[in-house]
Structure formats: C-alpha cells, structure tokens
Amino acid sequence: MDGTNTINSSDKVVVLTKIGLDHTAILGPNLASIAAQKAGIIHSHNPCFSINQSLVVKKVFDQVASSQQTSINYISQPKNISHLTPKNFNLSYNFNFQDLHLKSVTLNTIGLYQIDNSALALSVLKFLSLRDQFTLNIKNIYQSLISCQFYGRVDLRRFNQKYFILDGAHNPQKMAALIKSLKLFFPGQKFTFLLAFKQRKDFTKMIKMILPLADQIILTKFKVTSQDMVQLSQSQLSLNRLFTNLNFSNFKNITDQLEALKFALKSNHPIVVTGSLYLLGEIYPLLNKIKK
C-alpha cells in the first residue's frame, strides 16, 4: 500500500522511519500489520536503513529483509547517537557510523524526534558516499542541519513577543513526541493550546496527553476541500463532552481560525497549535495577519 513501491531500481536504498499507529483503516490495526505494509518497499538485495524500532516491528522488518536477501542497518542510541544536549532552542548530539564521527551536530529545532531522523539521513549519506564514491563535505553537513526548518514539525516561532509552537501531531505517538519536546525545553511551563483534529483520529488519547500541560484550550475547526477528498475536523461538541468528562473547564470554542489566533495571543503562556496538518495548512497563511 506504499506509493514508493513504484520505485524498483536495483540500487534503491530503503529508509524506514519510526513506525506508529496511524491510517489503521488502510494499513491494519496493529504495529505488526503496519510494519508489514511499510516493509513492502524492500525489494531484492536493496540496502536498508531504519531507526531503532520496537521488537514487534523489528521482527517483521527482519523477516521481510531476509526474504529479499538483504539486511537492515538499525541506527540507535547510544551506538550511533550520543551526548544529546538541548541548548538555546536547538538540539545537538554526537554521531558515529562506520568511520564518520561528528561531534556536536546541531539541529535548528526543539523536536526530539528529528535527532533520529537526521541520524538516519546521515547514515544513508555515509553509505552512499562509499558506494557511489563521492566525498562528504563535513562543513556543508553541519551548515545544512543547523539551518534547516520544517514547517509543522515542532516549528518554534516568535510572534508579538509570544512563543508559537506549530506541530502537526495527529496521532498518540506523534502527540507524545511533541509533549516530550515541550517538557524538555519549557520545564514546568503551562501552555495555551489551539486545537482541531481530523475526524476518526484518536483524539481522546491525545487530549489526555495535552491536559497536564494546558492552562487553556481553544478549539477551532477546518474544512479542506482542495484535495481529492473533503477533510473535516472532529465536531467541537464531542470534544466539549470529553473535556467535561475529564473535569477540564478552561476551554473555548472559536470556529473562525483568525479569531482563534487573536484570542490565543491574549494568553500569558506559550501557544501550541496542533492536532492536524490540515489545521496547520490553514493556520500558517494567517500568521502574517497577526504580526505587528
């Protein structure tokens, strides 16, 4: 079910990022079934790289790799990634793979999961440099990683003297990763959350993760009609009921996204916009309208 299966060249390098529960209606109800779909991109003798996975996922990956007469290079801590250091809203770590040893690789992000993603990319880059015989420019590697910015991936910004964190977390795994980063860089801090979730997502688990850090929650909505299928947000009524059941009362429904942003600016806390990439796709163009 993976679109990258259309790439079947013999020199293809397969890269597998962290597997979590998402798109379960299509990919299957558990990690093993999802891993089997993802591992389908492994073709005969393809070199394979993966970030370290849960045991159930590794078992599936290794079985598929063996059937295709290849094996998987797992990138993990502390073997390849060590000395993780958060500093000044950046992340740095030491990286080791084969004879590539980089000290204090610095990422322009507070997203902890980008440590794994960047280390995975560096491993593949090192492998390709040996296989295809090109020289790595170490200076360019450092420069690229410190300057890169990913929209919607724990994207930290300043607007009107406020910290804005925009992240497209839309399942429990991704929300847990966002919460972990927030706790690391804003220890003891409460936040104002601006939320909308796509229908049929596990919003209950995500809300339960958010509440311990939430001073205030603003609920908005989206309706995306510019793609093949109309994408609708979860009804605010169902979210209201959940908040009531969880004894959380400091929430507000503001359907208009621009008005929701303006209201969030009244908060004395950092503002986190999350719950859906569809929401972020509509929020980003509005940010210029709230700049002073």
Q: What is the domain total for the residues? A: 3
The strand order across the widest sheet is 7-8-14-9-10-13
**Could you tell me how far the N terminus lies from the C terminus, measured between alpha carbons in angstroms?**
46 Å
Low-confidence parts: none
Q: Which CATH class of the largest domain applies here?
A: Alpha Beta
Arithmetic mean pLDDT:
92
Number of H- or I-type helical stretches: 10
Question: In the CATH classification, which architecture of the largest domain applies?
Answer: Alpha-Beta Complex
List descriptors.
about 290 residues; alpha/beta; Protein-Tyrosine Phosphatase, Chain A; 3 domains; six-stranded mixed beta sheet; three-stranded parallel beta sheet; 10 helices
Q: How would you characterize this protein structure?
A:
This protein has 292 residues and is an alpha/beta fold. It has 3 domains: 3-75, no CATH class; 81-147, no CATH class; 155-290, Mur ligase, C-terminal domain (Protein-Tyrosine Phosphatase, Chain A), CATH 3.90.190.20. The chain is 37% helix and 23% strand. The chain contains 10 helices and 14 strands. It has helices at residues 24-27, 31-39, 55-67, 113-131, 138-147, 172-185, 203-210, 236-245, 257-264, 277-290, and strands at residues 14-16, 48-51, 72-75, 81-87, 90-97, 100-107, 155-159, 162-166, 191-195, 214-219, 223-224, 231-232, 251-253, 271-274. It has a 6-stranded mixed β-sheet, with helices on both faces. The chain has a 3-stranded parallel β-sheet with strand order 1-2-3. A 3-stranded antiparallel β-sheet has the order 4-5-6. A hairpin with a 6-residue loop joins strand 11 and strand 12 (231-232).
